[in-house]
Structures are given as C-alpha cells and as structure tokens.
Amino acid sequence: MKVLSLTEPFATLIQEQKKKIETRSWKTNYRGPLYIHASQTKCSSESLHDRELMALINNTNLNFGHIICKCNLVDCVYMTKEYVENMKKNNHQEYICGDYRIGRYAWILEDIEVIKPLKAKGQLTLWNYYTEQEVMKKMSEIEYGWVDKDNHKYIEKDEFFANKYLLQSPNEVIKNKLGVCWDQVELERYYFKGNDWNLKTYFMVHYDQDTCPTHTFLTYEKNNKYYWFEHAWGRFKGIHEYNSREELLQDVKDKFIKYELDNPYEIKNLCLYEYSKPKYHINVQEFFRHCESGRKIY
To answer: If DSSP states are collapsed to H, E and C, what string results for 215-253?
Structure first.
C-alpha cells in the first residue's frame, strides 16, 4: 500500500482529523488508499514554538517511526494566489497546519481512519509498505533461474553460471520474473525496505573443489520473534518462526547440510556470513568477495 511519511506533529494532526490537506512542493498523479507515516525525525523548532499549532495536539502522544492511520488521497491541487488567499481567509486551522505558498500543491485527504500503529522506517516521496504475506505473494511471481550478461535466461545453473552470471537489480528480477536465491534476496530486501524489522541477510557456503554450494536468505525480527523468509529454496518456501536468532540459523544450517551437501562433507568448510546490500551487476567472484567481507558467523 502507498505510504506518505510526515514529520510530527503533522502526521498526528491528520490522524486526529484536524488536518485534511497535506502540502507538498511536488505533484502526484496517484489517487487512492494511503497510509500516513510519522517519521522518526523530531519536530522542528519552528513547529514546537508555534503555540497555536501545538495546541491542536495538546495531551496527544506522538508516534515517531510508525504508520498511524490510513486515508484516501482524492485530489492534488496546484496552489494559485487565489487558492492560498482563500485558504488563509476561510480555513485558518488548515492554513496553520501546512505550507501554503503559491506554486506548491495541496493533497486532499478523505476517509481518515486510525489504525493500530505499524513500526516502519519510512522513505522520501511516496513509498510502498508490504506485510510479509504480501511480499511472499509478490515473490510467487518469480521463478528460480538466472540471467547472463547477454540477457539470456536459464532455468538451472550449468557450466556457464560461474563465468556469465551477473547479480540482477530488484527491478530486473521483477521484469525477468527469474532469479537465483542471490537475486531473490535483493528483491525481498527491496520489498521490505520500508519496514523497521531489523532485516539481516546471510550467505551460507560449503567450500570444496567442485560445486561450492551456497544459499542466501533473509531474516527479520517482529514482536520478539525471529523469522526466516524463504522463497527461492522451494523445499522450504514459506515464513518460518523462531524464538531466537540462534535457533533460526541452526535450523537453516541443519537443512542445508541434510539437503544440499553430499556425504561425507567437511564441517570446517561450511561457513556463514552476514552480508549487506551488494552492488548490482557483479559477477560470481565479486558476489563471493562481497559476502565474505561481511560478519563471519562461523
């Protein structure tokens, strides 16, 4: 769902239906359902010293870093001189809750509804918030496979993978509807980026002289539980809940050993790295180096 982040107290003013017009320097063509997000940015000193403005939310708790209500964005009006003068004269409360200057835009909000706060980091401009179930539904559109540097598509890894693979961007995965776990984790990271669930991504690898099997996966924390979000590994596709991160990582390790490694295998050659967002369009060797530069778990 589309989300708009505002600094406080303006998000709460909308939640309290004391502000039904959001003023912006830019136009949007979007119309429809909209979440309002109270950003983590603290109130500006100008707002704090505006007694008339702050009196509108007297004794109201502010919700920094949360989506706090939903509404419908029904119009986006260009502010002419006449529009600004009319607002100043006939709608004083709305006028003090926005930045009404000629050339800006008034976003008209209706059907404002308070919701249970959703923890979120927020982003600039309009952004999308997805639940984990919505992300899994979107991921269901992606098949397992890879795309080479010449944009040829492959359903399975083969002898060309090591020399021709390039990591796709999330938009490329969406367009191609194809990606190995390395690609799919970056798409998952993209979909989850507005959430504030302490996302972590991991690279598991067994070093040998032959295939060097690997798996990447994404985890997050929510309500004091830990979740392994898995789509690419078809056998374990789903959202798996754990009581601790250690329990989660051990379970993935056990499954990787059982289903992906040949016996006998060398436990000393099995490694796990926590890695950050990589650059897109890097090759296999570069992806390995990026993951290996992250925090080694074992």
So the answer is: EEEEEEEECCEEEEEECCCHHHCEEEEECCHHHHHHHHH
Q: What is the pLDDT of residues 113-123, one digit of tens each?
A: 999 999 998 88
Q: Are residues 45 and 174 in the same domain?
A: no
Same domain, 144 and 117: no
Radius of gyration of the chain (CA): 24
Closest CA to 265 of 223, 203, 207, 224: 207
Let me know: does 246 contact 219? Beta carbons within 8 Å: no
pLDDT surpassing 80 at residue 199: yes
Query: Distance of CA 98 to CAs 4, 93, 127, 274, Å?
Result: 15, 9, 21, 43
Q: What is the pTM of this model?
A: 0.87
CA angle 204/208/211 to nearest 5° reads 80
If you average pLDDT over residues 136-149, what whole number do you get?
A: 95
Instruction: Give the other-Cβ count within 10 Å of 200's Cβ.
Output: 19
State which residues form the domain around 143.
Answer: 132-296
When pLDDT is averaged across residues 171-181 and rounded to a whole number, the result is: 97
DSSP state of 103: T
Average pLDDT over residues 283-296: 97
Q: Do 30 and 99 share a domain, yes or no?
A: yes
Give the count of alpha carbons within 13 A of 245, CB side only.
Answer: 12
- Provide the CB-side half-sphere exposure for 74 (13 A, CA): 9
The structural domain count of the chain equals: 2
Q: What is the pLDDT of residues 30-79, one digit of tens each?
A: 999 999 999 988 777 666 667 888 889 877 888 899 999 999 999 999 99
Shared-domain flag, residues 117 and 168: no
Query: Does residue 137 share a domain with residue 270?
Result: yes
- My answer on whether 98 and 25 are in the same domain is yes
